[in-house]
Structure formats: C-alpha cells, structure tokens
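Re: that backbone. Tokens:
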C-alpha cells in the first residue's frame, strides 16, 4: 500500500535523532566521571623552582618565534638551568648537596700548604716555627742554642760528698729533736725578754772576739789586705767600741769578714771533703773539723781559765748563734727532705766562702745575698765546751 512506505521513511530521522541523544548523554557521563576522579586525587604540584626555570611551553613558543640560532641558544640555557636546579626530596628529608669536583687550581695550593707545614717543623718535629724564625733561618741558617759558642760556659759547682749519709741522717734527726726541745725555745725566749740593742751588742762582742782568728787565717791564705782590715777592726772596736759592744769599725768602712782554718785548708787545695754532722753543733766536713781544732788555741774566749766565766759566755754565744738562725726556720718548714736541704745549702755556702775570692766582681754581685753575707753564723770553735787541745 502507498501509505506504508511513507511511514517507514518518517521513522528513520527519529532513530538517528535518538542515537545522537544517547551518545551525547554517554559522553557527558564520561566527562563527569573523569572530573570526579580528578577532584578525588589531585595531581602533585609542580616544583616552583623547576617551573620558573624550565617552562616547556615558553621554550617551545620562543623556539617557534625565533630562528634556528635562537632555538639552539635557548636549548643550551635550558640545559644549564636544569643542571643548576637542586632537587628537593619529598617530605622532610634534607636536600642532597651537589658533588662539586675540586678545581685543580685550589688543589695545588693545598698540596703546597701541606709541604710548607712539613718543612716548618723543627729538627725534633715537635714545634712549628714562626715566619720570623723561617726568615732568620733563610738569612743566617738554623740556630742551635746548644752549640752557640757565644754563650758562657755552664756553672760548675762541686758536688756534695756524703758517703756517711746514713749516720748523718740519724744525727740530723737527733739534732732536730734537741733543737725543738731546747735550743729554739731558748732562743725565742731570749728574743722576747732582751731588747734589740742589747742583742746587737752581744752579737758585736762575740764577732769582735773572732777577728784575731780571721786575721791570722787571711794572712795564711795570702790575703794581707784582708788580714790588716780584720786586725784594724779588732783594735778599733775593742777600744772605741768598748770591748766590741759597739761597731765603729763598720762606720770607718772596715768590712767584716770571717775566716777560719777550715777555709785555709780549702784554699791550700783541700776543696772536697766528707760531709759530717756533729752532735749538737750541726753541719761540718772532716776538713772543717780539723780546722776547728786548729782555730781553738787562737780564740780569746778559750784563753779564759775560769770555768765560771768561760762556760756562761760560751752558752750565751750558742744562744746568740741560734737567735740569728731563727730567720731560716721558715725556709725549712714544709721541706720534703730537711736533711738534704740543710746539707746542700750549707755546702753551697761553704764552697763560696772558700772559692768566692777567686770569682770576679761581676760574678760576685750576681750571687744571692745569703752567699755573700758573712754574718750568717756557724758555731765557732770558741763556743765548743771541750776541744782536744784543752789541757
């Protein structure tokens, strides 16, 4: 029938239109699903440093607008920028430092510095020399103070000859015990009750009695000038000084010296002798013990035959000697070895008393006062209560 073909042709456009609507709806559904996926998982943000320095779109646009030479230059710049970028690790990890290869120009001075430091070591390799020392070595050569011929020779002091040390230490302990119990308390009591002018007069009196012995020994040692001074002191102080209580000889510029026969034996050649410590009378040497025996007959005090006069005078002289030694007690306090301290100090002073006149004036002035002071007392032979020469 004629009407049926017309109806079939009308349905064809409707079918095409329906398919188009279905495809559009499907396309819209896919687009919305893709949008939802993008919102749910956003893409990681690009590194701003990398985005700022490397922009592919800008590079492509610049390459499109410029010529071949500009494109090559832009590619080199982009490559250099990428090489300089520091890539940060994700999270809180610190950035990794670039590994920069050392330049040859900086490595060479380091080797030179190491070589210079090695040459700056002294012969022992312990101390680094300064720039001034290197300049001195370059001009004059290395300086060795040990081999310097302009330095003076080392001082040579006679050693202590103490083969009887075991006995001497025992006697030293005994003398210290007696000193602490008797001599030192008595000396302190004497200082406390006796005015200083009186004590000075007592010291002058006993010192004046020793001048004849000094004069004779100075003459035996070949020092006539010193012998004349000692004799002049004795005469002047005995007369004008009222038996030596006063000291006008010092005002007359007559120096006080002390010489004994032990020093005379040392000047004659007996320089080294055995050290020995006597009971109650302290340090001596065998040479000095013999010297005391030789001085005893010359002492004016030992010529007094009355024991009632001589013995009290000898006791007063011992107290006077200990009083003058009170100033040395503080030096001995806390000594690790009191015996060695007393022995070495006494021996050093005794060697100077024997050999001091052979030194020049410059050397003598450089010595400490305790060596050059002749007032440092020793127990003289005149204070010994008994001597082998006594009848």
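Recovered sequence:
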């Amino acid at each position: 029938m004629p009407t049926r073909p017309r109806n079939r042709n009308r349905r064809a456009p409707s079918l095409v239109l329906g398919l188009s609507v279905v495809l559009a709806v499907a396309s819209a559904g896919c687009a919305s699903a893709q949008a939802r996926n993008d919102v749910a998982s956003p893409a990681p943000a690009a590194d701003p440093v990398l985005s700022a320095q490397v922009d592919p779109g800008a590079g492509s646009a610049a390459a499109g607008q410029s010529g071949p030479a500009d494109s090559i230059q832009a590619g080199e710049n982009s490559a250099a920028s990428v090489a300089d970028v520091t890539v940060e690790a994700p999270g809180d990890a610190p950035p990794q430092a670039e590994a920069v290869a050392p330049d040859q120009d900086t490595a060479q001075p380091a080797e030179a510095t190491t070589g210079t430091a090695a040459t700056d070591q002294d012969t022992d390799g312990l101390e680094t020399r300064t720039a001034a020392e290197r300049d001195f070595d370059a001009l004059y050569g290395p300086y060795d103070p040990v081999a310097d011929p302009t330095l003076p020779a080392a001082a040579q002091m006679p050693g202590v000859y103490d083969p009887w040390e075991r006995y001497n230490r025992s006697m030293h302990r005994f003398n210290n015990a007696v000193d602490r119990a008797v001599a030192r308390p008595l000396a302190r009591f004497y200082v406390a009750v006796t005015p200083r002018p009186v004590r000075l007069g007592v010291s002058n009196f006993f010192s004046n009695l020793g001048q004849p012995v000094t004069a004779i020994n100075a003459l035996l040692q070949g020092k006539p000038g010193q012998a004349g001074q000692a004799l002049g002191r004795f005469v002047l102080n005995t007369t004008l000084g009222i038996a030596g209580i006063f000291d006008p000889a010092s005002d007359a510029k007559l120096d006080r010296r002390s010489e004994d026969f032990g020093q005379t034996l040392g000047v004659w050649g007996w320089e080294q002798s055995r050290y020995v410590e006597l009971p109650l009378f302290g340090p001596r040497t065998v040479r000095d013990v013999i010297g005391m025996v030789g001085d005893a007959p010359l002492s004016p005090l030992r010529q007094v035959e009355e024991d009632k006069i001589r013995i009290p005078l000898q006791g007063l002289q011992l107290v006077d000697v200990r009083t003058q030694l009170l100033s040395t007690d503080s030096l001995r306090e806390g000594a690790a070895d009191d015996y060695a301290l007393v022995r070495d100090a006494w021996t050093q002073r005794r060697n100077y008393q024997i050999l001091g006149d052979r030194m020049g004036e410059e050397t003598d002035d450089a010595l400490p006062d305790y060596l050059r002071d002749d007032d440092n007392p020793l127990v003289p032979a005149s204070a010994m209560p008994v001597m082998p020469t006594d009848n």
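Residues 1-10, 43-122 have pLDDT under 50 and may be disordered. The longest strand covers residues 275-278.
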